[in-house]
TrEMBL record:
Alphabetically ordered keywords of this record: Cell membrane, Membrane, Transmembrane, Transmembrane helix
Compartments it resides in: Cell membrane
Name recorded for this polypeptide: Polysaccharide biosynthesis protein
InterPro entries membership: PG_synth_SpoVB, Poly_Biosynth_Transport, Polysacc_synth
Organism of origin: Jeotgalibacillus haloalkalitolerans
PANTHER family (UniProt xref): POLYSACCHARIDE BIOSYNTHESIS PROTEIN C-TERMINAL DOMAIN-CONTAINING PROTEIN, PST FAMILY PREDICTED COLANIC ACID TRANSPORTER
Main location: membrane
Residues that span the membrane, as ranges: 50-72, 84-107, 119-140, 161-179, 185-204, 224-248, 280-300, 321-340, 352-374, 383-405, 411-430, 442-463, 469-487
Amino acid sequence: MSQASQTMMKGAAILTFAALFSKILSALYRVPFQNLTGDTGFYIYQQIYPFYGLFIALCTYAFPVMVSSILIERQAERERVLKLLTLFLAGVGLAWFAVLYIGAGLIADFMGDPQLKPLIELSAWPFLLLPVLSAGKGWFQSDGNMVPSAIAQVTEQTIRVIAIIGTAFLLTNAGASLYTVGEGAVIGSIAGVIAGALVLVFFIQKHFFQKKERLSFEKGDMTLLRVLLVRGTAIAMVSMLLVLYQLVDALNVYALLTGYTGDAAQAKVLKGIYDRGQPIVQMGVVAATSLSLAVVPVIASDYERKRFSQVKQKASLAVKAGLVFGAAATVGLISIMNPLNRFLFQNEDGSAVLSVFAAAVFLTSVILTVNAVLQGTGSYHTAAWTAAGSLVLKYGLNVLLVPVYGTGGAAIATVCSLMAVAIVLIVKVYKKIGLRLYKPFYLRLLTGLIVMAAGVTLLLLVWTPETRISSGAASIAAAIIGAYLFFKVSWSRSLFTKEEVGQIPFGRKIDRLFIRIEKGGRSS
């Protein structure tokens, strides 16, 4: 491997670690927040969170990637192009700020809760820092320097989590209203964003704009900006799909539940219970995709060199890993949902709905993995248009199902919408590179899942936890036993080939733990 390739892989590893750390932290802090504020307080925060999630997706995954790509292509005029892109992103950020700040009252009314207006206004402010975060990260990433982006991302999440939990603790103990606590949480998010921006500014001042030249506009700049906006949005659409679904739920689920229950207070509690599913699913997706996505970056290089047999091989491995870990995480979560819900959120309310919602882990894992494969082959727009269409489907299904089934209807709407996206992308990747998996793989996977679910169910029938602490112990024990049973039954029977095991992070270590029954056997 060349020095440049080693540097690129090292940088990608640093950024991946920062992203995983941030996602785990982002999921975990919601548990103590819910414990402090209750389901109603959690409902209030979750109504506003999608706006922040949208901001983070744009300035972490979408625009920095495109800024980096454009700057690499325009090496001869990097500083001029960077100034142009930064100015354009400032306009994008200002537009988002205006929509949220000026339209806060209309959005809150549409959600059915006018008291959310001040929180929506506050959530607009981070968008003013969009150009600093997006252009700054893109600049350093174009040089192969991922350290500033990683430090900024970890700093932002760490400060944000500390600020949110700290303000929630202080305000609830002071007897503040739950909406005031929600405002404090949004301010905590703003503090995190500012901290991340300051980290980038610290690095930027040493590198940016050594030549103080006035920005000039040239022919072709509009095309450049259109590529930044369109392709950047396309890249972001799938990565922030769950956040966009949360936004759809924020817009209409509470209003629909108010009609379903006839009681606004009860509707807020039900929406808060339903929102417990977000951190659970987020953790499941992180666990399921971290291994599968690790093998994807090399696909683009092989595709560009027209090594199509290697592209198909690596794509097959990525999709198989996404299926395996996504399915295992989903079945595992469903099997331990009752004690896990009590352990994390103090009671078992909504466990049936959360079990339905947990299917999103499997579907999202498949979608993210297949989409990464498609992006590696230069296909961006199919996934973006499919994701956009699924938002319309999600909204319509909410309208149809929530008045009949309550939050269960919202969970079903999410699963059905994700399933539609997954089917379209699977068909697309099959047509693109001829990727398909065979019956023995599915049989081995299914056998492992059945044995895991049966073992965990039997354990929880024998051990019925009655306290929060014992529920936590039961959840951990069941998860460990379930994982052992799954890997023992499926992995050891050549779920992956020996060659594939060597390409999966920690694959050989897992292989040593679960010695193969069919040594040298081939898995399709």
